[in-house]
Amino acid sequence: MFATGIENSAPTIGGGRIRRDQLAECGHYDRWREDFALVREVGCGYLRYGPQLHRCLVAPGVYDFSFADEAFAALRRQGTVPIVDLCHFGVPDWIGDFQNPDFPEIFADYCGAFARRFPWVQLYTPVNEMFITAVFSAKYGWWNEERKDDRSYVTAIKNIVRANVLAMHAILEVRPDALFVQSESTEHFHPECPAALAHAEFRNGERFLTLDLNYGQRVCSAMYEFLLDNGMTRDEYRFFMTQDLRRHCIMGNDWYATNEHLITGEGTSRWAGEVFGYGPVTRLYHDRYRLPVMHTETNCDEGPNGDESERWLWKQWAGIMRLRQDGVPILGFTWYSLTDQVDWDVALRQQRGRVNPRGLYDLDRRPRAVGRAYQKLIRGWSEVLSRQSSCLHPVLASIA
């Protein structure tokens, strides 16, 4: 499943006063028809894409699908399969933030309404990067609620994952054969010194929290104590452990050069660059959940010579092929996103208006070197991998 995505992050910053709507900042609202044509031009059959929650979810039970109606009809006509992203880092102003206990039920109702309006859609990512959403909003204090305490962090985790679980149930009521691609950041934490061992062990347990709860996987004892000490009740934990949705799920994992971290003896962290790389860390996640895998996000700045992103693409592809050869069921690959992004070098925390050259196309919709390389990769490998499609379809069928 060769895919790209149209960047639709939409968290708030500045105490909720500023909405970082990347569809607006990257020009998609004005050029969406052109963007869809570029998806076909590069050769992707799949597109990670979704309407903005803060625009569509007007009030409880009140929805505005006017833009989605037009956009999704166009995708269907051109034969591009959407992996529908329904919540990407932000909620409508009237909900507030991820501390709102009403969010999960409100969001699930919205997802059910979307599925009824677009019954032909099968692939979904209800909540994108649940772990990062909680960390950036309620642990680092960067987005949305902008909090930095453990109780707020656990509250965000349980509301976000509950929203994702209830959304899956709501969609399955409409589309019983729906498949859910959990696009989640794949992380690893390395101890810098012996004093950092305990801190790294804790963080390496913490990285699994959102997927553990989503898949009904028992957390380790340290994580169980952490959750209960910071506001999760036993009944809330049991809710997650009694879900049976794994057969509908594909473990989507996202990988960037910033996904490995170096932990100090004091427990602080900094980016470590690539130490293990995509393959070994993905194997840790696959060994834990034993689900089919899709590489759902990666990108890299093109660098001063204009070719760094192209080298990164081929490195990611080599990692995928190695995992496939070793028997890990890798179902797809995604370069994210179709076009350049804005201010992701500061994680959207500041409005600088700086264009990050990470797309297959620049914001004038001209192809970058990585776009041409991805087109070549898809063209070269599609025929070979299509011969293995008889393996892909039974895997998907067995999940559903």
Tell me what the structure shows:
The chain has helices at 22-25, 28-42, 53-56, 66-78, 103-117, 130-138, 150-174, 197-206, 209-215, 221-229, 234-241, 278-289, 308-325, 369-386, 389-399; strands spanning 2-5, 12-13, 18-19, 46-49, 57-59, 62-63, 81-87, 123-127, 179-181, 184-185, 188-191, 249-254, 260-263, 269-271, 293-297, 330-336, 341-342, 355-356. β15 (293-297), α13 (308-325) and β16 form a beta-alpha-beta unit. The protein is 44% helix and 17% strand. Mean pLDDT is 95; it is low at 394-400. It has 15 helices and 18 strands. The protein has 400 residues and is α/β, with parallel strands linked by helices. Strands 1-4-7-8-9-12-15-16 form an eight-stranded parallel beta barrel, surrounded by five helices. Strands 11-13-14 form a three-stranded mixed beta sheet. A two-stranded antiparallel sheet has the order 2-3. The two termini are 17 Å apart. It has a single domain (2-88, 105-128, 160-185, 215-221, 230-256, 289-399), classed as Alpha-Beta Barrel (TIM Barrel).
